[in-house]
Design a protein that fits this description.
mainly alpha; 2 strands; 54% helix
Length: 267
């Protein structure tokens, strides 16, 4: 902070008196105390730093980071959030607040990395004597992020279309076979389009998703004509066999995803 100091100086004026041959005399003003300088303003108080608290927060970051590094979405715990939103105005608080904001704005499927702002926090903590080592992303977490990115991508529309059509097929299969078969063909078309976006191999190493889509596609193809099925009152045996194969693959897929991404994304 710049300080402005005003100095006041008092000058003495000598008055000379004399005329003709008269001797001159020096008249001095009455003695007075010099003007006092104004008091220097005190600097604004700096934010108080509680080193013990800062060290405790850094240790909390160190404990929190390994889990958050593979979390989707990652987020600060309650204690760190409270500190990040506090009014300490320290470097650690400022950097932790920026990290909190970056994590909130992180895109789905994007696990935590150095771009989120963890580096400044690590630097602040290192200055306080707390070393924080960056962890590695667990394989299942990395795969889970890849799966979510895939699921939220273009394939999502075809999955929703197929799911809705199959739901309508089930709804009308006992009351209006022609309508039911029409929805089954819609599901088959959506399954064929969904094959353009394969599921990440880390999530489905045995290819059950592709087998399931082929089964739904074949079911729609082998169902035949809606009007003919309505006249017969049932689906052709080939379509029924296709549907059974598709359901078998779907159940295997769910078991596989429980292991690969530790999730049940399809209900």
């Amino acid at each position: 902070m710049k300080e402005i100091i005003i100095l006041a100086a008092a000058g003495a004026v000598a008055l000379l008196a004399g005329c003709g041959g008269a001797s001159s005399a020096i008249h001095r003003p009455a003695s007075s105390s010099p003007a006092a300088a104004p008091a220097t303003p005190s600097p604004s108080p700096s934010p108080s730093v509680n080193t013990t608290q800062e060290v405790s927060v850094c240790k909390d970051v160190r404990r929190w980071l390994p889990g958050a590094w593979s979390q989707d979405p990652p987020q600060l715990n309650a204690r760190l959030t409270a500190y990040a939103n506090g009014s300490q105005q320290t470097a650690l608080q400022t950097d932790l607040s920026a990290l909190d904001t970056n994590l909130f704005n992180l895109s789905p499927g994007g696990y935590m990395g150095t771009s989120t702002g963890i580096t400044p926090v690590r630097r602040d903590c290192a200055a306080l004597g707390v070393k924080i080592t960056l962890p590695t992303v667990a394989p299942d977490a990395r795969c889970r992020h890849r799966f979510r990115t895939w699921q939220d991508g273009p394939v999502q529309y075809e999955i929703d279309s197929m799911s809705n059509a199959l739901g309508s097929f089930t709804k009308y299969s006992n009351s209006n076979i022609a309508v039911a078969v029409t929805f089954l063909k819609i599901a088959g078309t959506a399954a064929g389009l969904a094959k353009h976006w394969p599921m990440p191999s880390c999530a489905d190493p045995d290819g059950y998703w592709h087998t399931y889509l082929k089964g739904i596609q074949a079911t729609g193809r082998d169902a035949g004509s809606p009007s003919l099925d309505a006249a017969l009152g049932y689906l052709p045996q080939t379509a029924i066999s296709d549907e059974q194969n598709a359901q078998s693959a779907f159940h295997s897929l769910r078991s596989e995803l429980t292991q690969s991404i530790q999730r049940h994304p399809f209900g």
